[in-house]
UniProtKB/TrEMBL annotation:
Transmembrane segments: none annotated. Residues 172-528 form the Peptidase M3A/M3B catalytic domain. It comes from Sporosarcina thermotolerans. This is M3 family oligoendopeptidase. CDD domains: M3B_PepF. InterPro entries: Pept_M3A_M3B (IPR045090), Pept_M3A_M3B_dom (IPR001567), Pept_M3B_oligopep-rel (IPR011976). One of its GO terms (biological process) is proteolysis. Keywords: Hydrolase, Metal-binding, Metalloprotease, Protease, Zinc.
Length: 564
């Protein structure tokens, strides 16, 4: 499976190696006199122009590293950004925030246009502590180390050295012996790196706890809620955990019984929980994957296909697995060029097909935002919004999976996507609960951490599974979730947004054209609004209360039952 790897996909309009030159541009901004509202607005524009140049270069260097963690020059450039530019950026961002908040015109600028920025920057001024800068740099270094370890992880499969994503794809296999073999090899690989991962996580927990203490918080959980400017409370999250356990897990257990029967197994084991009722991977070559997904997008909306074709032609897609490539997948926007880049490290599987569709939801969202509103600024980006459009794209394309599957397989593929929707309602949420525990108990040991991860996993996704004899393997499997290392507390947003995406599917079943137009409308509106307002523009509600959890769980179960 091959793919040409384009290199010139971002614009480097600032030399980040010229540290003095970068710092001089920050100083100029700090020295600009602001004597009117128009001066303040011009200053904000000049600041934005500088910041997006820096961010595009840093994003490009980061993606370069994720694409090839073994290249010494690429790594050196990326580490320079992390160790030199990032501290400089944090230092001057704090000074610029102070200048903005101290301006006599701070409260006079347009609330609709700048209200969210004002609240976010006020929050940053209150949270900033200079002593946290080296701690945050160290946090990034540990994240980089994680990427290197995972990117270099290989497994021997039938006499050949294979990257981990290939073995993970074998968990889909209908042959139970193949699934079990893949499961055991993955856990064996995790066991090899477990001491390194424990050391990384131990240090991260202590670093993050100290960052929170320095900023005046009791724990990192409370601190992160303020830094993320969440529009809901910690208690709302705990209530969500309970409501999903109450209403979604029983439905998941019923669904597991159906799958157990279809798999013809008496006991549902950990390697059965991953199985797909599909005979073969949906593609063998990346080109076939891209051809098919392009067709699916085009049948949904011409604009979706146009953006995909553009990305394909301009080297903005890096899919497929190879040694030295960082794990996972993501879509990231390039704010100067106005493009989006999709990265994925995946072997042929049902999941990799869905993952590309998911990331194209992000990409379409990004292109619509850029064309309607200009570059999306950091303060506007909220995961609860971004994930609505990625999950939403998955479900809008649910009825087009026959692009890759025959008639009978098509129905199974639809069931698999809807089963994935179930997992999105509790999997990320259980990861959120795990992180709440870690950071409110920062003195925990690696053994306690593994035990807690097993306990939470058993309460949620592994509830219907016979885990006997594999408690230790399951307990240490948190090492495969990069969010815990690189994107702390970025998990519950997947579950919240899936409730919105299911509402979008509900709308699509009633009126496909209107649902797609609502998707595009919401994805292109001014992101200075509240999350609830943006969801409303998309034709859905930002609501994860018990009645909504119960209703959408029942809807999802019925949709699965209705596939004949």
């Amino acid at each position: 499976m091959t793919q040409d790897i384009a290199q010139n996909y971002y614009k480097e309009l600032i030399d980040l190696q010229d540290v003095e030159g970068v710092e001089a541009q920050f100083r100029i901004l700090l020295e600009v006199p602001i004597e009117s509202i128009s001066d303040l607005e011009k200053w904000l524009k000049d600041e934005k122009d500088l910041m997006i140049k820096i961010m595009e270069a840093m994003i490009g260097h980061q993606v370069d590293f994720f694409r090839n963690t073994e290249d010494a020059d690429i790594k050196s450039t990326f580490l320079h950004d992390q160790q030199v530019i990032q501290p400089l950026l944090m230092k001057y961002e704090a000074k610029l925030n102070e200048k903005f908040c101290d301006s006599p015109y701070f409260n006079q600028i347009d609330e609709n246009r700048y209200g969210l920025m004002r609240r976010v920057r006020e929050s940053k001024v209150k949270l900033f502590r200079e002593e946290n800068i080296p701690l945050m740099v160290k946090e990034q270094e540990l994240s980089t180390k994680y990427s290197e370890i995972m990117g270099g992880l290989t497994v021997e499969w039938e006499g050949e050295e294979k990257p981990l994503p290939f073995v993970e794809s074998q968990l889909d296999n209908l042959d139970r012996a193949v699934r079990k073999k893949a499961y055991l090899l993955i856990r064996s690989a995790y066991r090899q790196i477990k001491p390194d991962m424990d050391a990384i996580m131990d240090e991260l927990v202590q670093l993050r706890h100290q960052i929170a203490l320095n900023a005046g918080f009791e724990n990192y959980c409370d601190y992160i809620f303020v830094t993320k400017n969440r529009e809901y409370s910690v208690q709302d999250c705990y209530d969500f955990h309970e409501n999903v356990e109450k209403h979604i897990i029983p439905a998941w257990n019923r669904l597991a019984d159906v799958f157990k029967s279809k798999l013809s197994v008496d006991t549902y084991r950990p390697w059965d929980n991953t199985a797909k009722l599909l005979k073969n991977p949906p593609y063998t070559e990346v080109s076939t994957l891209m051809d098919g997904v392009g067709e699916m997008l085009g049948k949904t909306d011409p604009y979706f296909a146009d953006r995909f074709d553009y990305m394909r032609e301009h080297g903005l897609l890096d899919l497929g697995d190879r040694k030295g490539k960082s794990p996972g997948g993501f879509c990231i926007d390039l704010p100067v060029s106005g493009n989006n880049f999709v990265f994925a490290n995946m072997s042929p599987s049902f999941f990799s097909l869905i993952a590309l569709i998911h990331e194209m939801g992000h990409a379409v969202n990004g292109y619509l935002q850029f064309s309607e509103q200009g570059p999306l600024e950091e303060y506007q980006w909220r995961a609860e919004i971004a994930e609505l459009y990625s999950h939403g794209m998955e479900l809008l394309l649910l009825d087009k999976l026959n692009q890759f599957y025959s008639e009978e397989e098509f129905k199974n593929a639809q069931r698999e996507e809807l089963r994935r929707a179930f997992t999105m309602l509790f999997g990320p949420l259980s990861g959120d609960l795990f992180q709440h525990w870690m950071y409110t108990n920062p003195k925990h040991t690696p053994k306690e951490r593994d035990e807690k991860f097993f306990e939470i996993s058993k309460r949620y996704g592994l509830n219907p599974v016979d885990t006997s004899g594999f408690e230790e393997e399951i307990g240490m499997s948190w090492v495969g979730t990069l969010h815990f290392i690189q994107y702390p507390f970025y998990t519950i947003e997947y579950s919240i947004s899936m409730l919105g995406a299911l509402q979008l599917l509900e709308n699509y079943q009633k009126d496909p054209e209107l649902a797609v137009e609502s998707f595009k409308k919401g994805a292109s509106v001014d992101y200075n609004q509240s999350i609830a307002a943006i969801y409303k523009e998309t034709g859905v509600s930002f609501d994860f209360s018990e009645p909504t959890v119960k209703r959408m769980g029942e809807f999802l179960e019925k949709v699965i039952q209705d596939i004949h």
